[in-house]
């Protein structure tokens, strides 16, 4: 069963050539002109909306923004949590789930938000028309239902829908109070930390209440059964029965030890054991399928299949879960080697360095390190989200020496080995380590940096 959105931006066109009798070809050409005009207008409005959002949208929003993504958002949140734990503070979080968020957008409220951002009356009239007279129908087994009017929501999968939703909930972050918040589309995490667990949970409850009121004002409903709490802790005594966080309706939120946040499984100790277990299982299943059907594929097809179906799974979030223990990460090496053996037909006894040479791919360690150093460099260039760029600070040399002319970062203080896993600490350390061989004195383009980085990391042996 498929849902078909039969919606159009109503455009009225008058043209002398369309009056009277015209041929079918002329009619098709005219209809095409109308569609092109609609598409051009839509792109124009989206560009205007996008550039306005660059200065208006909240810094703690990552969804539907150029240069922002699930990985950058998770890196920021984990940096805050790890830094707090390193200071022997308690950290509590609420993962907020909204019920049918994009379908619940109130058009009148949204138009008001657009007006507050400074859009002209003509532009507001265009958006009002964009939302007017929308209908949807259901198509199943060749049958099409009658149209049903759609009076609320923004169309998912459309050009403007996701960006308009960002505008709609842009001010929610202002209600967080003493807590921190990060929004990615309709996924929201609210978190806070402090030396006392009671104080932390009290502050979190106060902020959660304010956030709920803010969502209610937008007519967005909380999905209490899917909204979860988590206590992040590695160094302090775990409480036997923490105080419940409740909704405005009086429902207690469930405390969990693992939660899938923006595609990455987080556990309360940030070990990433659950995430790597899921990755391992998913890749094993796919590699098993490929081996069972290996007779159907040429060598080139095998290479392409692994590139398209296996490597993206390993790459997603690898700069996040790279902080896992070597024991856990080695489990991913095993399935990676299996995928390469599928391509090369190499026997099981083939050394992994020989496997990498056969396909021309680096080890997973080098692959993760490459992605990680690229994130650091983007942050230094200002091409990463501001909340990441603000975590790296350039060092100012005291004396002018050959080594001091190289670009380096200030390494912040960390009290524990776990604290050294934070973005702000590990980014500075890893960049300064890279500079021992790279020796950049001025910034180069990202393309040139990737090329030089490839040369730096290619010959490093990762055998242990």
TrEMBL record:
InterPro entries: DNA/RNA_pol_sf (IPR043502), RT_dom (IPR000477). CDD domains: RT_nLTR_like (cd01650). It holds the Pfam family RVT_1. Residues 1-266 form the Reverse transcriptase domain. SUPFAM superfamilies: DNA/RNA polymerases (SSF56672). PANTHER family: REVERSE TRANSCRIPTASE DOMAIN-CONTAINING PROTEIN. This is Reverse transcriptase domain-containing protein.
